[in-house]
Design brief:
With 243 residues, the protein is of the alpha+beta class. The chain is built from five helices and ten strands.
């Protein structure tokens, strides 16, 4: 990933270098990742393949090795949440291995749709602490779909993250049941019969179980509305209410 940072250098003649620091959070600890002499260019391009390079601060040093204060945090842009949430979502769905039911592109779209629905639900009675906007497109390119700001880095609402994962799992489970139910056939011709509806038994068990994805989300949702979304939400994220 390439992040381009534009800056205006001080006009003093003894300024010798520009320094770039990075952090996962805008309020986190920033580490030096780049330092170079100032040329006629006022642009720094940082190349990094990681997901933890989304907030930056810059400073300037002079020939006497004095360094200015760090600038305000600058958001590097991009969406890192897919690199973090997609593996977590696959764990929830048990969709691992060489043959996967859902592609990364499809999972991203489903995650964005479920996130948008969840956000609308919460806005009616108990809005989340972070305001999100969503890009849901007819474009097949997954890059045209997104959530802003990045829900993993920057300002974080752990209640949203917990419920988002659980709702997406529940939505995919329900759609899987409906899709397979629509494709099921039951035919009998004399002594010969074909019945593919038996394969729906697993979906029915999940749909009806108190430990299934739909029931787990409903439980967590009502706990959130009660102001009691705690450690009982079994996803990767803790709850804001535990802090």
């Amino acid at each position: 990933m390439a992040v381009t940072i534009n800056f205006v250098a001080p006009t003093e003649n003894d300024i010798s270098s520009v320094n770039v620091y990075q952090s996962v959070l805008s309020t986190g600890e920033f580490s030096l990742v780049y330092s170079s002499g100032i040329t006629t260019s006022s642009t720094v391009v940082i190349y990094d393949s990681g997901v933890s390079t989304y907030w930056y601060k810059i400073s300037f040093s002079d020939i006497y090795e004095n360094e200015s204060q760090l600038s305000a945090a600058i958001y590097g842009g991009g969406e890192s949440w897919t690199e973090y949430v997609l593996p977590l979502m696959r764990t929830q769905l048990a969709d691992w291995g060489t043959t996967q039911t859902y592609s990364d592109d499809e999972l991203k779209k489903r995650l964005v749709i479920s996130a948008w629905q969840l956000y609308q639900m919460a806005n009616v009675t108990a809005p989340f602490s972070v305001e999100y906007s969503f890009t849901i497109s007819n474009d097949s390119d997954p890059d045209a779909w997104g959530i802003q700001p990045d829900p993993i880095y920057g300002s974080i609402d752990k209640n949203f993250l917990n419920l988002w994962i659980l709702k997406t799992n529940a939505d995919i489970t329900k759609s899987g049941y409906l899709s397979n139910a629509g494709n099921a056939i039951k035919v009998k011709d004399g002594d010969t019969s074909i019945d593919t509806s038996a394969s729906l038994g697993g979906y029915k068990d999940i749909m009806g179980s108190e430990y299934g994805a739909p029931a787990t989300f409903e439980f967590a949702w009502y706990e959130y509305l009660r102001g009691n979304l705690g450690s009982q939400v079994l996803t990767h994220f803790g709850s804001d209410l535990e802090n």
